[in-house]
Structures are given as C-alpha cells and as structure tokens.
Amino acid sequence: MNEANIDPLVHITAVLKNAAGSESDIFSTQVQQAGFLDRLLLPQLTDRIEIRSASQPMTLMFERQLRLGDVLTEEMLMILLVLAGALVLMPMVLIRHFRAIERADVEHERSVYLATHDVLTQLPNRYLFAERFNQAFSDWQVKGIPFALLVIDLDHFKDINDRHGHEVGDQVLRAVANRMLHSTRTGDTAARYGGDEFVMLIADLQDLESAQAKAARVFGSLSQPVMTSAGELSVSCSIGVSLCPVHGQSLDTLLKAADQAMYGVKQLGRKGVAITSVPEA
Q1: Handedness of CA 198, 201, 205, 207 (dihedral sign)
Q2: Is there a contact between 24 and 16 (Cβ–Cβ < 8 Å)?
Q3: What are the φ/ψ torsions at residue 99 (nearest 5 degrees)?
Q4: What are the distances in angstroms from CA 278 to CA 203, 216, 245, 256, 274?
C-alpha cells in the first residue's frame, strides 16, 4: 500500500470499521515533515473517502501540507522576478519621463523668454513690444481710450562706452532699464529697441497733457546719476512722445513721429521731452 502512494508528501491513513462500530487503523504512510514557514503561511489540504463495503467498510483520509516549493516553482519565480523588475523599473521610467517633460517645459519657457526679451536688460524686445502695441490698439478700437508711445535715447552714451568700457556701459543700461520698469504701471510696457534706445507704451491716457506728464516723470527718473564700477556717472536722456490716434494709428507711424520729436530734443541740446507735431497719418 505504501508503494502505491506516489506522492511522498501526502499522508494517507486507512481506518477499518468493524461490525461493533469501533475503528482500527490499517496503515498510515510516512511523510516528510513540513517546515515552520510552510505550516505558518500555507494551508493543509485534507480529503476523506468512505468505502462502503458490506464486509469491510473503510475510510481513507488524505492530508497534504502545502509547501513553499509548491508555489515558488521555477516558472513562478521567473514571473515574480519579472514583476519585481517591472515594479522597480516602472517608477524609474516614470520619473525619468516626467523629468524630461519638466526639462522640456523649462526649456520651452526659456526659449519663449529669450525670443521676447532683451538678454542684457531683461526688458521686452521689439517683437514683444509690437504685440503689446497690437493689444493696446485693439483696446483703443473697442473702448476709445488713447495711448502714447515714448522713444527714449540716452545722451552721450557712446562717451561712456569709450571712456569706461562696455562693461560699465552695460551697467548703465541695466540701471536705466530697472528705472523704466519702476516707472511703468500695470498695462504699460517698457522695451529695449536696440543699443541705447528704449521705447515705452503708456496705456489708458485721458489726453495729451497726461502723456506729457508721464514722460516728464520718466525723464526725471532716468536723469538721476547711476552708480557703476567706475563710480557715479551722470546720465541724461532725450524723449519723444506720440499719441494714438492723434499722431497715427500704426506702430511704424507712431514710432517715427516720436523719433522725430526725440531728435528735435537732441538738436536743441539734448536732455528734455518733446511731443511730436507730426499730423495724423
């Protein structure tokens, strides 16, 4: 009977029932003792078979303690290794993916900023200024509120570069740009148009006099001395002002008008503010 037990891990017990109702063990197979972890973690399987015979009724009982080796087969270990590898690699892949997206977003923002701002002064460049002009012009068309353009040119800036070098000249440009930013309100735009020339869009003006008053305040702010690595330097500027729609209704027309007014200041000895007298284009 023992030889018929093909699984040495199955414990088989045969019990014979006699006519008096008592039971006697016929045989019991020997099995390998299961380990502590096997008994702790895995269930024991049992089965019971009744052999109903008139002469020799018998009961067969089968017991099989599951072992870790039954579950952790080579195939299962391979699957677990693959899953474990996936659990480790997937977060790493996702982290790298999201970091790549973040770097791409940062690089995109940087590219957009460099395309619309002056690197030295951090002011908007002429391309962004043109976009802001279009917005202001659209608002004027809808609401009828005029706005002004200022062309600002530093006086004798070439002398600063020639005497003290371009590094000091850059310090002056950055200081002027910072003062322009502090002179603007929400809705206004100050931009570097090239070299030592700046432009400013003054939005929501009531009349020509308010544009001139705003230009005078900008002039006063920019005419203060600038502290540089070469010491304190005197700075002055010439400002020309044009008003939309009085002096034109396009960016080129208004810039040319303000530029002519600015050169008029230069011809009169620099250091001042003038409003263009160019008729509407």
Answers
A1: positive
A2: yes
A3: -65, -40
A4: 20, 20, 12, 9, 12
pLDDT confidence tier of residue 4, bands split at 50, 70 and 90: low
Tens of pLDDT, residues 118-151: 999 999 999 999 999 999 999 899 988 889 999 9
On whether the CB atoms of residues 188 and 201 are closer than 8 A, the answer is yes
Domain stop point among 85, 116, 147:
116
**Is the domain of 43 the same as that of 182?**
no
CB 123 within 8 A of CB 181: yes
How far, in Å, CA of 152 to CA of 181, rounded? 14
Q: How far apart are CA 84 and CA 86, in angstroms?
A: 5
Which residue range forms the structural domain that includes residue 263? 126-275
Q: How many domains does the chain have?
A: 3
Q: Is the pLDDT of residue 25 over 80?
A: no
**Strand, coil or helix: what is 29?**
coil
Q: What is the pTM of this model?
A: 0.64
CB atoms within 10 A of CB 50: 10
What single-letter amino acid sits at 241? V
Per the residue annotation, which of 153, 196, 204, 207 is the catalytic one? 196
Dump pLDDT digits (tens) for 194-248: 889 999 999 888 777 788 888 899 999 988 999 999 999 999 899 999 999 889 9
Q: And the tokens for 105?
A: 């977003």
Bridge partners (DSSP) of residue 153 are 197, 238
Look at residue 255 in the predicted model and tell me its pLDDT. 94
Q: Is 196 a catalytic residue?
A: yes
The secondary structure element, H or E, covering residue 61 is: strand 58-65
Rounded Cα–Cα distance for residues 180 and 175 (Å): 9
pLDDT for 166 beyond 50? yes
65/83 same-domain check: no
**Which phi and psi (to 5°) does residue 40 adopt?**
-75, -40
